[in-house]
Amino acid sequence: MQPSSSVFLLFLSSFSLALACNKALCASDVSKCLIQLCQCRPSDGNCSCCKECLMCLGSLWEECCDCVGMCNPKNLSDTPATAKSTVEELQRPIPSLFRALTDGDAPINMMVVSFPVAEELSYQHNLLSFLETLDTHHNVSLPGNSIHASYDTPDKLCTVVYFDDCVSIRQCKQYCESMGGSKYRWFHNACCECIGPECLDYGSKTVKCMNCLF
Questions:
Q1: Where would I find the beta strands (DSSP E) of 143-204?
Q2: What are the Tsg C-terminal domain coordinates in residue numbering (predicted)?
Q3: Which of 100, 150, 191, 196 is at 20 to 30 A from 7, Cα to Cα?
């Protein structure tokens, strides 16, 4: 192990003992920023490179800033990371590729899960039913002919893929693009879910990554 890596791991461990630092997600990116920049931490009220550190961490700033002592510790009583996620539609899905990769035995380091589209849309269905009630009693205008049209899909299955290990949001997007996924959901505990073409919403809201459950 390189000396710089040893120093980084010791530094990161000292913070993670006191703070809610997600080492599985942040280690590689924080290590890169620490090596390239001026340690990414304020000293005696002077933080000349704080802006550079923020730009270096990029989209991981919110999740990783406490690993380098640049933001207040996360309150462990707050909503758990597994209950929060980021979703995005992918620009160039390849449905045939996704189906081929998820048909039969699951590839190594992945888990394929299929469930009824009706289950995927249950939350949306409840919300639309509530809006329909408002429409009846308060003259709220709703678009479309039938708000339940997309929910009436009892025979369709939504197929998603979970990666066993924790990954960054950038890796999650890249992995899902490479296997032809239509969308992805990245949970804030670093679990990655690739969403197939038959899914009408953003897949499952449940974390099922074997080595990244908390």
A1: 157-163, 183-187, 192-195
A2: 81-212
A3: 191
State percent of the chain over pLDDT 90: 38
Closest CA to 15 of 2, 38, 1, 34: 34
Q: Taking phi first (over 0 means left), then psi (-120 to 50 degrees means alpha), and beta for anything else, what does residue 207 get? A: beta
- Greatest mean pLDDT among 20-24, 69-73, 87-91 lies in 87-91
CA–CA gap between residue 54 and residue 83 (Å, rounded): 25
Q: Where are the alpha helices (DSSP H) in the chain?
A: 3-18, 23-36, 50-57, 61-64, 95-102, 117-120, 122-138, 169-178
Q: Is the dihedral of CA 34, 37, 43, 46 positive or negative?
A: negative
Q: Are 194 and 175 in contact (CB under 8 A)?
A: yes
Q: Is the pLDDT of residue 149 over 60?
A: no
| pLDDT band of 3, cuts 50, 70, 90 | very low
Q: Which residues are CB-neighbours of 115 under 8 A, at least 6 positions away?
A: 157, 158, 204
Model confidence over 32-55: pLDDT tens digits? 777 665 666 655 566 667 777 777
Determine the pLDDT at residue 126.
Answer: 44
